[in-house]
Specification:
Distance between the termini of chain A: 35 Å
Structural class of chain B: alpha/beta
Number of strands of chain A: 11
Mean pLDDT of chain B: 93
Distance between the termini of chain B: 50 Å
CATH topology of chain A: Purple Acid Phosphatase, chain A, domain 2
Low-confidence stretches of chain B: none
Order of helices and strands of chain B: EHEHEHEHEHEEEHEEEEHH
Largest interface: A-B, 12 and 14 residues
Mean pLDDT of chain A: 91
Number of strands of chain B: 12
Strand order of the largest sheet of chain B: 3-2-4-1-5-6
Number of helices of chain B: 8
Structural class of chain A: alpha/beta
Strand content of chain B: 15-25%
CATH architecture of the largest domain in chain B: 3-Layer(aba) Sandwich
Radius of gyration of chain A: 19 Å
Shape of chain A: globular
Shape of chain B: globular
Order of helices and strands of chain A: EHEHHHHEEHEEEEEEEHH
Low-confidence stretches of chain A: none
Strand content of chain A: 15-25%
Number of domains of chain A: 1
Oligomer: heterodimer
Chain lengths: ~270, ~260
């Protein structure tokens, strides 16, 4: 079975439409979405409505959660005071735009979706705000996959796609007490983490949307990069009164709205 | 009266005038106290002067409105460096120097040929390959008493030097950052960046800093409003300044590396 997995659309309907067209070419059986439908981009309602109308199984992203519950992040949320101020502007703008129906839809999104040996989360199984970066310590990475109960963990949130095989999952522990000295070994089967990147707000240095095709039969992973008319989105950002710097960053694929540069950071939210 | 060697140093924006002077001061056998540095036309945003003063605390530095003192001190000095910004007329010093003899030195990008600097200078120093004709707009602001969030500064500096606020050919700044250091930022288009440099100044950890900080940007079509607003978004509030200073003082007290 082929599945398409996308994440972090961030109110960018132009990018979402382009990705959906691209997915059509691959004849996938299912599409999954890893959340962050809103935030920064100028079309939050259109994006939510498109996802709703297509019945795409979607888990909650940190931006979706914040629009529903209000801002409540740990200090990993923003890399700087400047980014935090900008994030707040985007949050307040989105909060005003989103319709009650769409907010209700975001409110019922699950934290995790499971299908057979696949699991889908926004950030990590522990938190929508936690980054599973490609350089994350292998032991921590393996723990995150195992805690999802799956063999393949799909995540987003970092806005840069990657996939990682965790194939040396061995753990040896020794328990010692007065009367006991025992050693146990555990071996985990091959696990994968697949990050779908970002449809609407990439940070891989180009404006193109990214998503992933995964084949459950042969475990093939295809990281897709899709060009679209990002200038339309940039124009809409400015016309809708969002900070022009959002458009400037989108056009260069250098959005780093949240802290994503410290692989050792464990979110405390 | 002895007449010191007066070097008037000119050149395009970012060609390496201050760097050349810095090197000369570093290499000379003349004692720092016998050296004078003056950069006219910089108003209250005299970044080069403050950088030179931080690196060579013994040399005598002068600002605009101190011309009379400068003229009094020149006969006492052994070497004088007067740095002419790219925005100043090459003849603008003649009246000030009152016909004192000087050596005109031009620090120029290697690709620049037959310019007004070539006609003016006695000596041409090959500098860095800076752009020579895109510095029509100059934006400067003093930021004394402000403390900038260093992570925000990194983002702002990236945006500034990659065209988010107009075409920037040259940018330089001195800022006080969260942990009390004073840092120097430097950008010349087309020249690899070296990151922020810590100036040789004591950490400021008691209230708002009273020493100089500020920024100067040269280029074309600069969006001054956005520059001001973004820079202002990077500054710490009183409570954050206090919080950071307390943290750093505590860390230093405990012998931790900061």
């Amino acid at each position: 079975m082929k599945v398409a997995v996308m994440s972090c659309i961030h109110g960018n309907i132009e990018a979402l439409d382009a990705v959906l067209l691209d997915i059509d070419k691959y004849k996938t059986e299912k599409i999954f979405c890893l959340g962050d439908l809103v935030g920064y981009g100028p079309y939050p309602n259109q994006v939510v409505e498109k996802i709703r109308s297509l019945n795409i199984p979607t888990c909650a992203g940190c931006w979706d959660e914040d629009v529903v519950e209000g801002l409540n992040a740990c200090d990993c949320s923003y890399p700087s005071m400047l980014a935090e101020k900008r994030g707040l502007i985007a949050h307040e703008w989105t909060n005003k735009q989103i319709t009650p129906e769409n907010r209700d839809f975001l409110a019922q999104l699950p934290h995790i979706i499971q299908e057979d040996n696949l699991a889908f989360v926004h950030g990590s199984p522990h938190s929508n705000h936690e980054y599973l970066l490609p350089e994350l310590d292998a032991f921590v990475a393996l723990e995150r996959v195992i805690s999802s109960g799956a063999d393949v963990l799909f995540c987003g949130h970092t806005h840069a796609p990657y996939y990682r095989n965790l194939d040396s999952g061995k753990l040896k522990i020794r328990v010692e007490s007065k009367n006991l000295s025992e050693e146990k070994s555990f071996t985990a089967n091959l696990k994968k983490i697949i990050n779908a990147g970002s449809v609407g707000e990439p940070r891989h240095g180009r404006p193109n949307a990214t998503y992933v095709i995964y084949d459950t039969d042969n475990q093939e992973v295809i990281l897709r990069e899709v060009a679209y008319d990002y200038q339309k989105t940039c124009t809409a950002i400015v016309e809708n009164g969002l900070p022009p710097i959002f458009a400037w960053r989108l056009a260069r694929g250098i959005e780093f709205a949240e802290r994503a540069d410290d692989p050792s950071h464990v979110c405390t939210r | 009266m002895t007449v010191p060697l007066i070097n008037v140093v000119a050149g395009c924006a970012g060609s390496g005038k201050t760097a050349w002077i810095h090197q000369q001061i570093q290499d000379t056998t003349v004692e720092d106290k016998d050296i004078i540095y003056f950069s006219p036309g910089t108003g209250n945003v005299s970044i080069d002067k403050n950088r030179i003063a931080a690196d060579f605390p013994q040399i005598q530095v002068f600002s605009d409105n101190q011309e009379a003192d400068l003229l009094k001190q020149i006969p006492e000095a052994k070497v004088v460096y007067i740095e002419l910004g790219f925005y100043l007329d090459l003849g603008s010093l003649s009246a000030l120097l009152n016909n004192l003899p000087y050596r005109p030195v031009a620090v120029l990008p290697p690709h620049l040929k037959d310019s007004e600097y070539h006609a003016w200078a006695d000596e041409i120093i090959p500098g860095v390959p800076a752009e020579t004709n895109s510095s029509k707009h100059l934006w400067r602001v003093a930021t004394n008493t402000q403390v900038i969030d260093e992570y925000s500064l990194e983002e702002f500096w990236y945006e500034l030097t990659h065209g988010a606020y107009g075409h920037v050919t040259r940018a330089k700044a001195i800022f006080d950052v969260n942990d009390g250091r004073s840092i120097y930022c430097d950008f010349v288009t087309g020249v690899p960046q070296i990151g922020f440099l810590e100036l040789n100044l004591p950490r400021h950890l008691e209230g708002r800093p009273q020493r100089f900080s500020g920024i100067e940007v040269a280029g074309e079509n600069l969006d001054e409003t956005a520059l001001k607003e973004t820079l202002s978004d990077c500054f710490l509030s009183d409570s954050l300044v206090k919080q950071y200073q307390q943290q750093i003082k505590q860390m230093l007290l405990e012998g931790m590396q900061v």
